[in-house]
Amino acid sequence: xxxxxxxxxxxxxxxxxxxxxxxxxxxxxxxxxxxxxxxxxxxxxxxxxxxxxxxxxxxxxxxxxxxxxxxxxxxxxxxxxxxxxxxxxxxxxxxxxxxxxxxxxxxxxxxxxxxxxxxxxxxxxxxxxxxxxxxxxxxxxxxxxxxxxxxxxxxxxxxxxxxxxxxxxxxxxxxxxxxxxxxxxxxxxxxxxxxxxxxxxxxxxxxxxxxxxxxxxxxxxxxxxxxxxxxxxxxxxxxxxxxxxxxxxxxxxxxx
Length: 256
Hints:
Pfam families: ABC_tran (PF00005). The protein is an alpha/beta fold and 256 residues long. It has eleven helices and ten strands. The chain has helices spanning 45-53, 75-81, 98-103, 106-109, 116-122, 124-128, 139-151, 169-184, 196-202, 220-225, 227-234, and strands spanning 8-17, 20-30, 34-38, 60-65, 68-69, 83-86, 157-161, 188-192, 205-210, 213-219. Strand 4 and strand 5 form a beta hairpin. The longest helix is centred in the C-terminal third of the chain and has 16 residues, at 169-184. The model is unreliable at 238-243 and 248-256 (pLDDT under 50).
């Protein structure tokens, strides 16, 4: 990909917490497409998300969106500039209804592609649950709401941290369809995933993260169908996973 084609450019990014460096010269670029970042636990995937959206201030390198440099800016500035975030764990307000979550951003969304009504069209289940509080939603419904909330920023790039975590296969199907729909409309989606099979379904480009850097890139088919690559980069052996899941693992008692 040439710089002219790139929507997001990350160059030699370095970041961490206190004296601990987690990202160590990380670089990649992407256009209006879906891209997945995969890797073992502790390789820096969530720190990458935090650095992109401003929760962690990089100590070096650059993050550019459509040519504009964003590294080091405040999270709200980065969100307005065009990076929306679907965090791991969803981070919803338990006492607010689905409608109330979406109405907080409805004014900014007025007259643009993504409005609360458009979110309800993408996720009909949310429309059925619009009067229910965040704490009353299933894990899948919470994830739909977290994605819908991010969409209301009408950003050109959405970053999703572990979006399939704890979800039943039927809900992962909904998520995959939604991501493909967004990409077809020209929205870029960067997915950080622990679940390899979900990552492959969500994105064809697979960036493998090792020790704070992008070590290799494969297509989804290459990574899924070549066990030696999984063993080398993801620690998946012939008997048990080591730090990355190869299939859906239900951790929430998901309701369909």
